[in-house]
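Next comes this protein.

***
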Amino acid sequence: MRANPFRLAAATLAVILAGAVVATGGAGHAAAAGCRIAYAVSSQWPGGFGANVQVTNLGDPISGWTLRWSFTAGQTVTQAWNATVAQSGAAVTATNVSYNGGLGTGASASFGFNGSWNGSANPTPSAFTLNGVACTGGTPPTSVPPAPTATPAPTGTAPPPGGTPPPGTVRVYWLKPSDVAYDQRWPDGIAAVMREAQRYYRQELGRTFTLNNPVVEVVDGDHAKSWYENTPNGSDRYWWSVFNMQQELMRKLSLRAPDNRWINVGEISAEGPGAGGGGGGGWVILCQHDADGAAGVNGPMNRWYGGMVHELGHALGLPDSTSTDGTPMSASFYDYPNTHFSQAQKNQILAGPYGAFLS
């Protein structure tokens, strides 16, 4: 759930589904998300430099922001103002302070920092994400392109771990690329996010979905992380990692899109520049920042809880709200758990193609 807004969109491999999606209905996205970043080195001296960053929100209003980027030449932030800045290796995270978190559409916030550099190269970071959405100077497209048709599952595909789950359940997958080390925090964290979403749906609807046992099926990927990130799959690079994941899951586990047997939730530890994810037609497909968030290493947990509730809403047939309206189908999911489905949304879920899955 980019989080970091989720760029949610109806995602299927064979056809565009008549459903809704987010990151996150008819085909659509979560509350519109987009951003523009102006990064400038204001001064530089042997061993040190100062920089100013302006964050402009081009999407729906937000009540808080987290900006992420990575340095490529060993730069290190040593002091910051007007934002709380943390760094782990090359990865930098800047979060609003109390007085500059709210950004309406077109509004900006600025912060600055001092840093150290190697005295040889101090390049400007090439990619930024705001609340998980790539900052491209615009907003994501409002419809999801069709992805290439999946290769049919070969005869004799091995059954999933624990055997084939009962129909009507939610199946969850963590696809681990071949060069990503196994870490139990990821399946445990993703499972915890799903259980919280399960609790929330019961709170809101009086009924909820059934999770498979085990909650998360760990799937060993056939390829290295860079393959999923850099192998074109669809017209927009935003979808490459998650479409590549979805195709592989379908092939390995004999899944379909849409699939009337289960609701399928796939997360992959791969991302790539500008990558995101979506949901629709009984599927949720998410990339690395969502998997990392679930594992507790990428921002506040309420962001990932709210994002999954939003994505599952799309998978169950809900479109995005047209405004920030207090429901989880809008940017209000960032305020989770202080967000609630409307009665119309509840009725649409229960009357939808997967309403019978809820009990």
In short: The first helix runs from residue 185 to 205. The longest strand covers residues 35-45. Helices lie at 185-205, 225-230, 240-253, 288-294, 301-315, 343-351. Residues 1-31, 140-159 have pLDDT under 50 and may be disordered.
